[in-house]
Amino acid sequence: MEWFTAPEYWLARSVFQRGLALLYLVAFVSAARQFRALIGTRGMTPVPAYVARVPFRAAPGLFQWHYSDRLFAQVSWGGAALSAALVTGLGDLVPLWATVPLWLLPWALYLSIVNVGQTWYAFGWESLLLEAGFLAAFLGNDTVAPPLLTLLLLRWLLFRVEFGAGLIKWRGDRCWRDLTCLYYHHETQPMPGPLSWYFHHLPKPLHRLEVAANHGAQLVLPVLVFAPQPVAGLAAAGIIVTQLWLVASGNFAWLNWLTILLAVPAVDTAFLSPAPAHGETPVWFAVLVVAVTACVAVLSYQPVRNLLSHRQEMNRSFNAYHLVNSYGAFGSVTRTRYEVVIEGTDAQRLTEGAVWREYGFRGKPGDVRRLPRQFAPDHLRLDWLMWFAALSPGYARPWFPQLLTRLLANDPDTVRLLRHNPFPDTPPAHVRARLYRYRFTTPRERRATGAWWHREAVGPYGPAVSGR
Fold it and tell me: What pTM was estimated for this model as a whole?
């Protein structure tokens, strides 16, 4: 069985598994804290209404049989507790036969959440977390050496993440080909971070260099991770560096951190610590890994076909279990940033003298003097959807009216998602949404005003809504 194992990657396996468990912990806690207002029984897009019209085969999971907010909370907090245990090394403390289901359980629990999450969970990093979590179950534990086939499957996943993102850019917006996309991206990305203002004001030649480096990282390095060592390790290290650059420049939930973790198993860590003695790989485990590899090979047909297509789709799952997906991001880059600003008034009659007070969101730009915060790897789902809402009202049609209705009622679960509620004691009489154009201030404006953003009113996003 020497061909089957790669003991020199034992440390890389440990780092990957424990890091992945930490990201699962973040995902479960995030779900537990946000679900009631988003998809709970009284949420904006309730799970009971969703499962009533979507069959099990299209969205398999626990909540197809029964849903309650209490059960969802139990699943979320239970998944968080299990993930925390895996972070501390539980998977290495139990026999191998128990390690496999121990890793499959958080995958199954999070699959149940994603498959009823609707638009709030329609992000590529949800499928990426599920696919990586499924493969982690077949890495084994410290009792056996890492299976080479599973390590290669993780490289195949890393390849699809990076190469898919690179192709969608090269085929998409012209600014990726003429190296100018980062003239705009740091300013118009969904949720800027605390350093995004500074990244935006880097010299334009450096922005062009950033784009060129991105093409190399996403179209060349993913191919090289399949090369012999040390080439594969150096390519993986290059991917890690570029992902850390993205971590510093924005907020993309756990996408960048998970991509970093996927690159770790491509690094030969034997130089850091020699491999310990491992037991012989059980036949049943070897058969299971071979079967999973064959399954991934079969399911790879559609993602490969998608990669080769000129009509490539980003972040597409080809099965309800989110296994072997296609990935990609920012095939097009917006040049102008718009923000939907929600305001309320306690005036009973809407006159020109009505005083409107603004709601504050945790992550998305609002107050022009507020420095953008770092929230990743957490995922602020409402803030992200508000970015899409500003792009087009069609993105917000399924949930935005319900958001306004809940703000009129000072719904505790909804208000909890916000940073600032201007009506903490008495609900407003009316709420409205207005569209603004935002841009980063220039260094001179920043020194003069202390503001990070400059904004100009575009007009109403929709009519004011009354609580009566």
Answer: 0.95
